[in-house]
Design goal:
With 334 residues, the chain is an alpha+beta fold. Helices cover 40% and strands 23% of the residues. The chain has 12 helices and 11 strands. A 5-stranded antiparallel sheet has the order 6-5-4-3-7. Helix 5 crosses helix 7. The N terminus is likely disordered.
């Protein structure tokens, strides 16, 4: 029985590799394509499952689109690699149909990285130039996601993340440290700063702020780390609330009360400040009760302090005590 299961798994691996080869050769594939069904000796349902798995794994590199094939009455889902023309077509479509809504994007890019717009083809460049002219008196950007992208390290780290490579980083925050053989997982823009999410040699997840890096170098280790290292942290990347969100630490819940003077910012229909933020109820005096989940006090206390004296911690008591201690320490300096 085990041999049969191994054989099935080996067949699947071979099939998916063949499908990937065909996609890389710019072939369009759909589950009903008889030539491939015959070649791989599989049915439509199996081929469809393989294609969905490839799409799920490679994400934005694979395009699944509805097309009419030959003389079929109904359109089929066709899978293929995304190419440069797709990107240009999408960008032009966005400019033509959503110009009033996305013009700020081009203003932001132009203000911080003029080189990128020079690489556009002429018809898109003309349209973008008109949008920039129209938007010059509208937008001002104070939070700049291009803050650290111009230094010598960003391109190096971008390559490391893309290729799942290691890097040695000299880092100065309070003290100077040398991190050897960091697995570069993600570049994250959060709290108005760029961070490198990386795994250390002792398998600890760290967020290193790029502006604190003194040097980024290629390590002695030349091989790439395995994708399962990255997948281990996928849920953390999707749910992290700020740079103080801890990995693999159970969440606690804080119940907070926003006074009527600030309650408008915490009403049910307002955009939440945290991913985990939940509206609970509105009191008769106009105040709002809501909750936020957190992994450590430092994740939410700075936020609470910004709203003082109009915000209270109702629960838990340990968080309220922590806030009192910090406020008393601050007052002692006055």
């Amino acid at each position: 029985m085990q041999d049969l299961e191994n054989m099935k798994m080996n067949n699947k691996t071979v099939h998916i590799l063949k499908l990937l080869q065909k996609l890389c050769e710019s072939e369009e594939i759909y589950p009903q394509k008889k030539l491939i069904l015959d070649e791989l000796d599989i049915n439509e349902r199996t081929l469809e499952r393989y294609l969905k798995e490839i799409k799920s794994f490679f994400g934005n590199a694979i395009l699944a689109e509805k097309k009419l094939i030959n003389e079929r009455v109904k359109s089929l889902t066709v899978y293929r690699l995304i190419n440069e023309n797709d990107t240009i077509k999408m960008l032009k479509n966005l400019l033509d149909k959503n110009s009033e809504n996305i013009g700020w994007i081009f203003s932001l890019i132009y203000e911080n990285d003029t080189k990128s717009l020079k690489e556009l083809n002429d018809d898109i460049k003309d349209t973008a130039t008109k949008k920039l002219t129209n938007n010059s008196d509208i937008f001002v950007f104070k939070t700049n996601p291009f803050e650290d992208t111009q230094n010598n390290f960003f391109a190096n780290l971008q390559k490391a993340v893309k290729n799942m490579e290691y890097r040695d980083v000299k880092y100065e925050y309070e003290t100077l440290r040398i991190f050897k053989n960091l697995k570069c997982l993600k570049l994250i823009f959060i709290d108005n700063n760029w961070y490198l999410a990386c795994e250390t040699e002792d398998t600890q997840l760290k967020l290193l702020r790029i502006s604190f890096m003194k040097n980024v170098a290629y390590p002695k280790i030349k091989e790439r780390y395995q994708r399962d290292v990255l997948l281990k942290y996928q849920n953390y990347f999707e749910t992290m609330q700020n740079a103080m969100t801890l990995y693999n630490v159970g969440q606690k819940e804080a119940v907070l009360k926003a006074d009527s003077k600030i309650s408008r910012y915490f009403k049910k229909e307002m955009k939440p400040f945290f991913i985990s933020q939940k509206f609970i109820k509105e009191e008769s005096d106009g105040s709002i009760i809501f909750s936020i989940r957190y992994t450590q006090p430092l994740e939410i206390l700075p936020f609470i302090k910004r709203w003082l004296p109009y915000m209270q911690i109702l629960e838990p008591n340990v968080l309220r005590t922590k806030l009192k201690q910090e406020l008393q320490k601050s007052l002692s300096y006055l």
